[in-house]
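The pair is quoted verbatim underneath.

:::
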Amino acid sequence: MTSNGSASPADDLLARLPGSPDAYPQQIDLIRGAVLLILLDATAYRSASFLDDRILGPATQGVWVPVDRVVQAAQLARNLRPLHFIFHTGHVGSTLLSRLLDEKGDVLSVREPLPLRTLADASDALPRADSLLSPGQFERILQTFLRLWSRAYETTRTVVVKATSSVGRLAAPILSASERSRAIYLNVRAEPYLATLLAGENSPLDLRGHGPERMRRLQQRVTVPLPPLHQLSIGELAALSWLAESCTQRETLKRFGERVIALDFDAFLSSVTDGMQRVAIHFGMGDDARFLSMVGRSPALTRYSKAPEHAYTPEVRAEVLRDSRRDNRGEIRKGMAWLEGQARANSALAELVTGGAL
């Protein structure tokens, strides 16, 4: 309590935590052993493309709380709903899919929660001596966030978490820990993936930033040493990204069977209504005729999903890909050649590349 007898900000947010998504665990700091709780209402969830630090501002109300107190509060969580996931290989329409699900009116979308990235890095470290968490501690924290993401508003029937692309490597621990959860895994073939990434102004930074982790993950799956990261061109880095994330997608599909379905974004755009029907049924939302009759004409299909203030239609996307194929022809060829070389050198990759690169 504060000196005037009122609850402290930490006590107030912890009191809200079990029953309302408004008390949102925005970050976890494993070094401090603390979670940042902030106030976030339903409108903010719906408008946010990313629930990372971009949602923080001078007016944000929040407080750091010890992890143990958050774990205890999460055990009392109520108003829980079915929790499902969207995993993806990056730049393949996952935000659009999430925004289309918003239009059902009874889905709470949690887009790219920052703690998932922290937990993915922590999971990578678990086998090593420098891990900050024991396997038991990791499991307890993961279960805590799964319960907190399951909290819902009265009108919510389903919660759908859209992960960051690099968090696909956490799909197996998540689906193992949350046995009733299902997932959609979005991807495209290699060539349009390369054309998409090479069209992006910030792609070189993104590809280099994620390159070391993706290189380590891919090297664990093959017997022949991969070429050093510093030798790869930007097109080859994009190919590395597609291959590493596609390997993770394939392994998730094989391990979890009917709980995970693959969705090719280009095929989805060719028939949005059929694609959304498949997604809704997979997530146990039923065959909602009203929703399906409207979703193919959704305004979300005419906006850039990560920044809805900008227009972006399937036709614009096709034009961007045409321009990239012209302007980045050389790097796309390098990337495709790199994939073909990896398929020849590593039999474990041959089927994946042959099926996804041509």
In short: The first strand starts at residue 23 and ends at 29. Residues 303 and 311 are 4 Å apart (CA to CA). The chain has a mean pLDDT of 93. Residues 9-357 form a domain with the Rossmann fold fold (CATH 3.40.50.300).
